[in-house]
Amino acid sequence: MQDTDTRVLVIEDDPEVASVIREILECEGYAVHTHSHGDCLDVVREFEPHVIVCDYMLPLRNGQAIVSQLRAEGVFVPFIMVSAARQASSDWRHWGVDAFLSKPFDIDHLITSVNRLASRYEDAS
Fold first, then answer.
1. H or E segment and range at residue 118
2. Cα–Cα–Cα angle for 81, 19, 96, nearest 5°?
3. Where are any strands of DSSP class E within the chain?
4. Distance CA 25, CA 32 (A)
5. Of 114, 21, 116, 121, nearest in space to 75 by CA
6. Percent of the chain having pLDDT more than 90?
7. 39 neighbors 61 (Cβ within 8 angstroms)
8. Is residue 10 over pLDDT 90?
9. DSSP class of residue 106?
10. Where are the domains of the chain?
11. What is the fold of 7-72+98-124?
């Protein structure tokens, strides 16, 4: 179980999926903030997440555009892309994404990925 000081930002436009991810990660001890669209730079700067879990298909921009913008702005928070989109499942490694989960994703795989990337972030700090 993580310390609640470890923050995860979930960027997901489906409220049910966002709620499930939030509940799972909060049960693991993470502090979780959800955001529903791709215009998220201010949220990232304010919340200062240790890990970002982001859907690929979002209003305003897709996950690839989000991770590209964050990296261009000097934000190198570990980034997990979640998607059922075929393009995302084959191209994510080229986008600066640290992990990819295909929808529907396995809960244990989500937890393992977040734990691994959160500890990597903490080790780098």
1. helix 107-124
2. 10
3. 7-11, 31-35, 51-55, 79-83, 99-102
4. 7
5. 121
6. 66
7. yes
8. yes
9. P
10. 7-72+98-124
11. Rossmann fold (3.40.50)
Q: pLDDT tens-digit profile of 22-81? A: 999 999 999 999 999 878 899 999 999 999 999 999 988 999 999 999 999 999 999 999
Residue 25: name the closest of 121, 95, 117 by CA: 117
Angle at 120 between CA 118 and CA 125, to 5 degrees: 95
Sequence letter at residue 5: D
pTM above 0.70, yes or no: yes
Token pair 């921009």 in the structure block, residue: 61
Q: For residue 120, give Cα distances in angstroms to 70, 83, 93.
A: 18, 23, 18
Collect all residues with Cβ–Cβ distance below 8 Å to 84 and sequence separation of at least 6.
102, 103, 104
